[in-house]
Amino acid sequence: MNLNVQDIYLGWTDLPHGPGCAFSSWAVDIREDEHFRSSYGGATTRHTCPDEDCDHGRSYARTTVRVVCLSCHCAHLISGESISSQAATTKATGFGEAPRKVAGLYLWPGEPWFDDEPHEFLVTHDKPKRVQASNVIGSIHEGRGPRGGKQFSATALPATNGTYGYGKLRWSRAEKGFTSLYAAAKWIAAQAPESDEAK
Questions:
Q1: Which residues contact 108 (CB under 8 A, 6 or more apart)?
Q2: pLDDT of residue 199
Q3: Is 60 exposed, middle or buried (0-12, 13-18, 19+ CB in 10 A)?
């Protein structure tokens, strides 16, 4: 799927259940059909694009995802045009895999890399039900050293205008050259404001 670890966990919206839902569980189905564009406000005419394969006609391929809770009867319909879909496992996407507890922190895995192991992790102090930007205290990235061996880099101390990082999260501190996941996680733990090692 080629998502970085931030895109795997952050920026997603949890679909709400109805009030007092006793058994929060979703039944999810997908449907693909031909849908006609609305002609409200005047006739819809074919787009006059010079591309001979232009398909901006009166109809389009629509994909609809239906998400229903059979307990509280809450239903969500999500539809769009030209949506692609692919099946994978939780190991291939990272999301849905249990976090690893390393150096007293939880490491949430990203997608696997060369050796079928995750090459990125988001790091939290606790084990939230759903990882949010407010839970994340650091990140770890696998790379290769000068001789091709595994090395890890780590970022810590979230900061809106931090010097390090990319995407939704920025960081005040970064370090590279760790020879193990444990060493990178231990460094992040030492950066935390409440850590004695960080003082």
A1: 5, 9, 94, 99, 121, 122, 123, 124, 131
A2: 38
A3: middle
Its pTM stands at 0.77
Stretches in the chain below the pLDDT threshold 70 = 1, 36-59, 82, 193-199
> What residues are paired with 122 via a beta bridge?
108, 139
> How would you class 107 by CB atoms within 10 Å of its CB: exposed for 0-12, middle for 13-18, buried for 19 or more?
buried
CA dist 104 and 125 (Å) reads 8
pLDDT of residue 135: 94
Greatest alpha-carbon span in the chain: 70
Residue with tokens 């390393």: 102
* Residues contacting 123, CB < 8 A, separation 6+: 105, 106, 107, 108, 136, 137, 138, 139, 140, 185, 188
Cα 190 to Cα 107, 141, 193, distances in angstroms? 15, 17, 8
Q: Which contiguous run of DSSP H or E holds residue 108?
A: strand 105-109
Q: Are 144 and 151 in contact (CB under 8 A)?
A: yes
pLDDT at 149: 87
- CA–CA separation, 123 and 78 (whole Å): 31
Say how far apart CA 87 and CA 97 lie, in whole Å. Answer: 16
